[in-house]
Each structure stands twice: as structure tokens, then as C-alpha cells.
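#random but structural
TW: two for the price of one
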Amino acid sequence: MQKHIYNITLDKVLLFLIAFTSFDKKLFPLTSSTLMSIILIFLFARSIMKKEKIRVNKEEKSTAFFFWGIFVLLIMQFIYAPHTDMLIEFSKYFIIGIITIITLKFLLRSRENTIFFLRMIVLVISLISLATIVSQVLYSILGIETILIHPYRSLQFPRSVGLYDNPNYYSISLLIGIGIILGFFQQRIISSNQTLYKIMFLIISLDLILTFSRGAIIAYFLMTVYYVLVKFNISVSSKKVFYSIAILLAIILIVPLFNDFVGWNESKIISQLQFRFFDKDFESESRYLLWSRGWDLYTSSITYFLFGVGGKNFQTYAAYGLDLSVHNSYLRYLYELGLFGAGLLLYLLITLWRKSVSGFTAFKNPLFFAFLALLLFGLSNDVLYIYEFWVIVACILYWDSPSRLAKKP
């Protein structure tokens, strides 16, 4: 009995380390994927010593089919992709995904472990977010710069980057933290310390605004509106959606007119948001133009149409005026992995959706809102293959079907 308790405690220690390194890209000496690989080797060895038999559930078979299909496509692309080094680098994202899911399979053996892991994720994100907001205040008052913010010369207000180097990718962690908190409230998992979680929700929300990431702010708004509609059982109609969008646009456009009546920092924040959403100079690097040129490339060959232009090769086709990544998860799968790759992504997302919700309001786990936020943010950034995404995938897979390991007879 004591041994069983020790194993669970060890699992929780490992889960805390994973939660911390998942959203710390600067302080911890090992990358999250390296630590995950080390932990996986240890867990495999422990499983062999205890003579445990690993069982594969239905959802894992669906996920395995996704990865199998992706690697078949990537191997085919070695025949024609212009930059195989980029192809190898792109393949690493999916290798990391497999390692992440298998590692968490060993650790998320029970609902208790999964809830503990999600709580640790929220705690880590909240602490980093709080420190980042303090850094914003110090910069605003004293001009002190820290690694948690990134002052841009062309912008009036520094952008929050947390322990990332990029505000857009930092906002992914913030969306995940907010989504998990909303899921906790919706599923009534939090029986105590509700006030603390409400405070963490507000802290992370403010920090998300200070990233000035357009895609993240829109995803946050839509995610929270969805939560409110479901929470208060509000019926949705096209008229309500129209008026809601109109009110949001009015706030964004009209509030700057009253800058004289708000504080110095608030005025700069509002101006910064207006700049990020409505700056006309950004049209020269419009993502719509990027996607249009990408479509011309994608449809230029039947091979590209079916199997893609090559993993991470999109930005190398200078002849089509492409020098940036796709900045859209769905188009990235379509352009770089072709029609078959986009189909595999759709298959995976449908599987995860069905694991998270029945219809649109019968939620099955607290991961739905974090998952929804990633789906929405994926419309403007490449997120549906990065490490944080695979962490959410694993948590969804093992919420209803804990990855129990049985001893071999």
C-alpha cells in the first residue's frame, strides 16, 4: 500500500515538472521536449520492471492513425520537397507530439492525477502572468525592462512575452490557462478557493490583453462569450451575434475618443490595441495576401494539391512572393501537407471534439474551452502542431478513459 502511494506521489512530482517546463522557455535548463523524453525513458523502465501491460483505447487508435498518416506524407515529400532540412525540422513537431502523449499516458492514470496536472498548469501560468504584469508596471513607472516584456520601438506600449520570446506564442499559454479555469467552473470541479481562481482568471486575462495579439484577443472574446451563453443558458440567434459584434467594434472605435478622461497608461493601452487591429500600414504584409499567394502555389500542381508543398517549405517559395510561415493552422496543413494532411487534421479534431462535448453544450471534460481557444487562435497562427497543443490533446484523451496500466498475468 505504501508503495502505491509513493508511485502516485512520484507521478505528481513529474506532472508538476512537466507543467512548469511546458510554459517556461527561458529559466529551466532543459527544454520541455527534452525533459519529456527523459521522463518517458524512466517511465518505460519502471513499467518493464513492474511488468505492466500497456492497453490502447479507441481514441488512442484514432490518434495513432493521424500520426501514421502524417509521417507517410512527410516521407513521400522527401522525394520532391526543395528543402529536406526544413522537412526534417517540421517532422520534429509530430515526434514531440507522440512523446508527449505517450508520456502523459503513463502519468494520467486517474482522474485525480489529471485534475492535479491541470491545476498545476493554471498555477504556473498565473504566477508567470502575475510577474509579467508587475514587469509592465515597473517599465511604465521606472522604465525597467525585464525578460517578461518586449518593448517594440514602433509601438507605444511593451508587449507581454512571459517566459517565451514571442508574444503570440506566449498568448497560447494564457488562452490555455483561461480555458482550463472556465472548464473548472463549468464542470464544477472547484469546490473551494473559487475566489482564488477568479483572481487568477482576471490576472491572466489582463496579461493576455497586454500581449496585444489580435488572434489571441479575438479567441479570448469568443471563448468567454461562448462560456457565458452556456453558463446562463442564453439562446443564440443571428441577431444577437450581429449586435454583439457591433457593440465590440463600437467600443474599440469610440473609446479612444475619450482618451483625455482616462489615465496615461490606459490611454496608451487603448491606442496600442487600436493600432494592432486597425493599422493600415499592415496591409503591405497582410495575411490575406500571404494566404492568396499560398493558394496559387498550392493549386499549381496536382502533387501539391494532394500531398502538399512540403513541411515547413511554404516560406521558401520565393517565386510566389512567400517568405513567411502560413500564420493559419488549417491552411498550413492544407498547403504544406495537402488535401490528405488537412483531412487527417479534420479527423483528429473531430475525434477530440466528440471527446470534449456532445453537440455544443453537453461538456464532457474541463478541457473544452482551452481546446476551443486553440481552434480559434489557429485561424491566425500556427498552433495545431506545437508542444502545448499536444499536452491538451493528451489531457482530452485520458479524461474519460484514464490510461490505466495493468500487470501482465
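TW: number two ↓
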Amino acid sequence: MATSDRPGFTYSRVREVDTLHFTGGIRGRRAEAGWRIGPIGPNGALGDLAPVPERDIKAAASALGIHVFGADEELLCDPYLRTRIWRPFVGLPSDPGLPTETWASIGHHASEAGDETYANLARNVAECLRAADIRLRDLSDGYESQLLSALNAETQSGVRFDNLPLKDLHLAIHSLVAEMGAARDYLAAIVGMHLGAPEKYNSLAWLLPWLKAKAREAECATPIAVTLLEGVDESSGDAWLSRLSAYRNLFLHRGPMGSRDIKQGPHLVELASVHGLIRTFKMPLPRNADCEPERDALEEFVALHRALFDLAARLASMARYGMTPRIVARADVAE
């Protein structure tokens, strides 16, 4: 660390580590000639698939039966403060930015216009989406640790196991569904404001009965209402908002993840690929009936997270206020 020629400012050389997050606990780490993806090896050994050029990452993941959903950049400038910059891959264009950014900008413009109610809701959406981002990353961290530990212990595929660090995964899931549920409700409150709903209809659970009343067919037909209702339409084949609400209510009101017995515990899964047999970590989510398919927590919440970001982006394009970031001029910066 050195002092610059400007009073009060310092500069330092920043070292960083880039990591790609895949489902199943698999990671990618930057190497000289591309990326090292692992742990992958014959029969689940602790090896890597390398080097993988950046342009071939998606194809390599598909060949392995996994998919990449985010990148983590860790700055190593301070040994006491671990600084990580998380970038989710949610299929949205870089312009105008992720909903975490656009809703923050909407909040700024709404505040400048004197609409503090709208501004607060917009800022809340941005903050909850950011928090959900971090919790998804934390869940992925736990998956990697559990996978490495199980492979090192030569745990057989399909054998259910339990350990104390699994509690961290349970807490990450609880926090993730809480933050995504809060973002869902703030978005629903904004939609309600657009449609003229009374202020008390400030969550999805309260807004839906009001919106689906026969007297509000015109409101239901508006683009902003149609966009929100797509996520609860059971005939669509993917009522993802309903699934998110069910998980939130289950974990926060009826039974936390850690309360289940070992028969529903995590285990390793064998995947056949062109690179041989690999193993990934799987944490099953509770099922409503035995006939339902067993869903993996990380895969399910990656999908729900992606759908929530898509909804937030589409609603941001219909917001009352612009989402252009504030431009900071030289005069705004203290010399």
C-alpha cells in the first residue's frame, strides 16, 4: 500500500482470483491456457478438466451434465477483508444492466421526482435482489465444500450422509428464499401501485385476490399485470412464482431444511459424460408427495433466481421512472 500524490488517497496493486460456479458443486478456475473445471476425473477422482478455452465453457458444462450460473472474482488486496464480486449469469443483456442496478437507478429517479413511496420500493427490490445473489453464491460455496469432502472420504454415490457444516447450507437456503420472497412482494407492491390497488395490497399474496376479481378484468389485461401473472399461471407449465412462495412458506413457517431425517439427506450423484463417470453433490428439497420428482436445491434455486431476475428486468422496463444510471460529473466529486 502506498500514498498517492493526492492528499487522503492511497493506491495498491490488486491481485484477484476468478472462479466459475457450476451446479453440483463443480468449479472452474482460471488457468494460463483457459479454465480448469473440477473436481472431475475418471470415476469421480479429484482431478480437473483442463485447459478449457473460455469460448468452450458452456459446451464443456453441457457435456458434463452441469451448467454454469455465475462468476466470482475475489480481490486479495487485504488479507483481513475477503472481498468478492459476484456476477450471476441470468441470461440478461449487459445494457441497461442487471435488475440490481436498474431498480437502484429507478429508485434514484423516483426520489428526485419526490415520489418517496415508489423510490423506497424500488430500492428495496434492488437490495433484496443483491442479497439473494450473495446467498445463492453461499449455497454454491457449501456445495463445493461438501462435494470435495465426500469425494476425499470416498463416499459412495447414493449414500445419504449428514454433518455439522450442512447447517450452513440450510441457513443459506432459508435466507435465499426469504430474500427472493421479499423481492417478489416489493415487485408486486409496485405493480399494485401502477394498477391503482389500495396500499394494503402490498404483497403478492394480497394483490392476487384483488387482481383476479371479476371487476378488474381490465387491470389484468395490462402488460404489467400480465407479466406478473405469468409466474402464477398453472396452465403455463412453469408457475415458478407459486413454487417460490411454497418454498418460502415451507421453510419459514412449517419446517426448516435441517428438521428432516437422514433418509432425505444429501448424497453424491453419478453422471455419465464423454469425459467419464463424474460425481456431483445433491441436496434434495422436500416433496409434497412421493410421486413428485426429487429436486436438487441448488439447481432449483438457480432456476428460480434466474426467473426472478427476468421478471424484475421486464417490470423495470415498465416502471414509472427511468432506469438510466446517474452520471457523476467532475463537479460532484470532492477534490
